[in-house]
Amino acid sequence: MVDPEVELDGRFSEPSAVPPPWSDVVDVLTRSEMFWLSTVRRTGRPHVTPIPAMWLDGALHFCTGAGEQKERNLASDPRCVLTTGTNEFRSGLDVVVEGTAVRVTEERRLHRLATLWESKLGWRFDVADKAFRDPGDQRVALVFGVPPEKILAFGKDPYSQTRYRLPAG
Questions:
Q1: I need a labelling partner for 44 at 20 to 30 A (CA). Which of 24, 38, 100, 148 fits?
Q2: E strand or H helix that includes residue 69
């Protein structure tokens, strides 16, 4: 992945703030287990849910059952936001990823993601029919990837707001 264009927003940053290194942002995305996924219902009403996600090859990935609210929302509008970080006011780094969710169906990538889910969370998935399958009850989980269109990072010591713009394509 190419390093993004970095822009510290002085309006929301302390005078001594500097942008967090891109490697710190990637570390938060890689190490975090839980994210908040924000989507929009067909009526325009927002929907937010906690969900595990995996950072792989420059995109966040999550899975959901067919017909679940988030899957129905993404079918009508694939734009979404994933947020992670800390619940602390004075320390840590919070990261917001904006992008468009794309269904992942390529078998090699699904196997790599299944390996990540098992190693990171202890969740085992089989790969079949372009999706994850729970080996115990054979429920299907559709997998989505969200390549970032914009990433915001919020530092807390000192306070900072940084925008990372990734090249298109």
A1: 148
A2: helix 69-76
- Measured distance CA(45)–CA(14) in Å, rounded: 34
**44 close to 133: Cβ distance less than 8 angstroms:** no
- Based on C-alpha coordinates, what's the Rg of the chain? 17
CATH of domain 5-106+145-165: 2.30.110.10
- For tokens 């938060």, the residue is 28
The domain spans of the chain are 5-106+145-165
The two tokens of residue 102 are 């794309």
What digits encode the pLDDT tens for the residues 89-103? 889 999 999 999 999
Number of helices (H), then strands (E), in the chain: 3, 13
Rounded CA gap, 68 and 10, in Å? Answer: 40
The reported pTM is 0.94
In three-state secondary structure terms, 121 is helix
Over the stretch 118-155, which tens digit does the pLDDT of each residue have? 999 999 999 999 999 998 888 999 999 999 999 999 99
pLDDT digits (tens, 9 = 90+) for 17-69: 999 999 999 999 999 999 999 999 999 999 999 999 999 999 999 999 999 99
